[in-house]
Design goal:
With 645 residues, the protein is α+β, with helices and mostly antiparallel strands. It folds into two domains: 330 residues, Methylamine Dehydrogenase, Chain H (7 Propeller); 258 residues, Rossmann fold (3-Layer(aba) Sandwich). Helices cover 15% and strands 33% of the residues. It contains ten helices and 36 strands. The strands form eight sheets. The protein has an eight-stranded mixed β-sheet with strand order 29-30-32-31-33-34-35-36, sandwiched between helices. Strands 1-2-3-4 form a four-stranded antiparallel β-sheet, with no helix packed on it. A four-stranded antiparallel β-sheet has the order 5-6-7-8, with no helix packed on it. The protein is globular and about 65 Å long. It starts with 42 loop residues before the first helix and ends with a helix.
Length: 645
């Protein structure tokens, strides 16, 4: 289940050979589809596509000598860290795990050591530790402990220490530690009273802490480590207003934060650390997703969540103008990292039909150059499908946005089977961008409508809170209405419409089959919640204060158990009459395996076809390529068996 936070930044993304101030127009599918059918590809071919990611935003992405970029890739079948030469050539492995996803977090500033992050519990426990890879290739756990979860928060300005948050002292809270970059000696810098440590100023004086009160109301506190070290509220307000930290400015003068106090959407504001004065920084009719700076402060990156696409701006603060890059295809730029003297950046470029490619650019000339291509060479990008944004009216008249993928060749004369795809959450959002899962299904003739039901983020605070304490009811009806919208399209086969989703989307999938048993022809439930009473009682301790915000949105199991039973598919499984596929990771700490086990048994008791795929080595999301292929093959085979006629 994805935690919601009103100011949580989404995945980075952006533009091309134009000012980096607005995303380029995307080609929309034409009404008249090409009669020529695309070549179809196997799940294995889609998942031979490589996934690339840059270092942590809190880390250093370039090696000390500027010759390599730190990336993570699943090219071996599971994520590992690699050093990618800036001049091109093969990436050198920095980790070699065959079982546990291991990611490159940061280079060290003055030598070739690397910080890594990996799940210490293995198989999806989400108890990540921070490791150091020494110059001789040996790896050392810097945050040991059986039930410890730790993350890199950043480097200080002097680059002689780095900050880590860890729950080693108390499973429910994350304290702040400073690690000496040479000796790895650590000391607790700040003992967290039970909130979320969001950032530390580069000079190490100030700590910003976020405190969720409810899903609609949150605050920011500042701690002066050179003063009384007591958290001081800086976002006093009346009513329900969401605030969240973006980060400190490199000159240690301001905190940049997000707030929806001034309208429907989150704006970026600044708080002066000396005077307390506040001022708007970025205002728009969409949420500001994030604001960050290069280490010197010369460049500022910001992004808007604009109708399910990310519009990113890379601003040169010395000129006030956006940086221009040349030599690139259309797509979304993201994950920008700077070299030490800020003359060069590394970044990713992606689109609906192309996953993250790795690029670099000279900031003086703007000339960009591709270093890695992610899409499998077996796949012709022309066979893939661009999405379009659609809107449909729900039963009560509420307008619901969605991202639609229409298969090539679908027409009134050749109607396509269709899937309503439900995102996770509560409070997630389906956005445009490459998805191997979606493209594989569309490539095999299925239309996919990724519905952003009420309660989704990205469309203003009113829409976001429309499903509070109404989960499994109003938002579920939006999913049912999405199925009807698909059936109303003359190019969709109206008797071949399925519902599919993961996590909270898996819950809505199972709920659709249980509470609207005639609405869909089949359902694919991927690690979905089936018993809210048990799920909310078993939230991991490290969720801490955010658990209280989730309880405010979903209801407290101590007082709202009756409602939770009412909306839980498990207790109404006798209603399910349409085939279901359930896919689950045995080590999932968020949605326990028993959730799926019990639902499968209950539906089988109805003499309804149920298929169950259980991965013994996965958690909440599938990290291993072979497992992703197995799951994808199961999706298509199941849909072909029970939906396509």
């Amino acid at each position: 289940m994805k935690l919601t936070s009103a100011c949580m930044a989404s995945v980075l993304a952006l533009v091309m050979a134009a000012p980096l101030a607005a995303a380029p127009a995307r080609a929309e599918p034409t009404v008249a589809q090409s009669p020529e059918a695309p070549r179809t590809y196997t799940a294995a071919e889609f998942y031979q596509t490589r996934s690339y990611g840059m270092s942590s935003p809190a880390g250093l992405g370039f090696s000390a000598d500027g010759r390599s970029i730190l990336i993570s890739s699943d090219q071996t079948g599971v994520f590992n860290a690699f050093a990618l030469p800036i001049d091109g050539g093969e990436a050198a492995p920095l980790s070699t795990s065959t079982t546990v996803a291991t990611r490159g977090v940061s280079y060290f500033p003055h030598d070739g050591r690397v910080l890594l992050a990996a799940d210490s519990g293995g198989g999806g426990s989400e108890l990540t530790h921070v490791y150091v890879r020494e110059l001789d290739g040996t790896v050392r756990d810097l945050t040991p402990g059986d039930n410890v979860k730790a993350d890199l928060l950043g480097w200080n300005a002097a680059r002689d220490a780095f900050w880590v948050t860890s729950n080693a002292r108390d499973p429910e809270v994350f304290d702040l530690y400073a690690y000496d970059a040479d000796t790895y000696e650590s000391r607790m810098v700040f003992q967290n009273p039970g909130m979320f440590i969001a950032d530390v100023s580069p000079d190490g004086r100030w700590v910003a802490i976020d405190k969720p009160v409810t899903s609609a109301d949150s605050d920011i506190y500042l701690v002066d480590l050179q003063g009384d070290r007591e958290p001081r509220l800086i976002t006093a307000h009346e009513g329900e207003v969401a605030h969240g930290t973006y980060g400190f400015t490199p000159d240690n003068r301001q905190l940049v934060y997000g707030t929806n106090e001034h309208g429907e959407f989150h704006q970026a504001w600044t708080h002066d650390l000396a005077t307390g004065a506040k001022a708007p920084l970025i205002q728009a009719d969409w949420d500001v997703e994030f604001v960050s700076y290069s280490p010197s402060g010369r460049y500022r990156v910001s992004a808007l969540n604009a109708d399910a696409s990310t519009e990113l701006t890379l601003l040169d603060t010395t000129t006030g103008q956006p940086v221009r890059l040349t030599g690139m295809p259309g797509g979304d730029i993201g994950q920008i990292r700077y070299n030490a003297d800020e003359t060069r950046i590394a970044f990713t470029v992606s689109s609906d039909t192309s996953p993250n490619d790795v690029w670099t650019a000279d900031l003086a000339t703007g000339q960009a150059r591709r270093l890695l291509t992610a899409l499998s060479p077996a796949i012709d990008e022309a066979d893939l499908v661009e999405s379009s944004i659609v809107r449909y009216a729900a039963s009560d008249g509420t307008i619901i946005p969605g991202v639609l993928y229409r298969p090539k060749g679908a027409s009134a004369a050749n109607p396509a089977p269709a899937i309503v795809l439900v995102h996770g959450g509560p409070g997630g959002q389906s956005t445009r961008g490459y998805s191997a899962m979606t493209q594989h299904l569309v490539n095999h003739g299925y239309a996919v409508l990724a519905a952003n039901n009420r309660g989704s983020s990205g469309y203003g605070k009113t829409f976001f809170h429309m499903d509070d304490r109404a989960h499994g009811e109003a938002d579920l009806q939006d999913i049912v209405d999405a199925g009807q919208w698909l059936r109303d399209q003359d190019w969709v086969a109206d008797d071949q419409v399925a519902v599919m989703g993961g996590s909270y989307g898996g819950f809505l999938t199972a709920a659709a089959l249980a509470f609207h048993p005639e609405a869909f022809d089949a359902g694919v439930n991927i690690y979905g919640v089936t018993n809210w009473v048990r799920t909310l009682e078993s939230i991991p301790a490290w969720w801490g204060a955010q658990r209280d915000a989730l309880f405010d949105e979903m209801g407290d199991p101590a007082t709202d158990g009756e409602r939770h039973r009412r909306i839980s598919p498990l207790f109404h499984a006798s209603n399910i009459a349409r085939p279901m596929l359930v896919v689950q990771g045995a080590n999932d700490p968020r949605v326990l395996q028993v959730e799926s086990d019990e639902l499968v048994a209950a539906v089988r008791a109805n003499d309804v076809p149920v298929e169950y795929v259980l991965f013994p080595d996965e958690g909440h999301g599938f990290q291993r390529r072979e497992n992703r292929i197995t799951a994808q093959e199961a999706y298509l085979a199941f849909l072909d068996r029970y939906v396509r006629k």
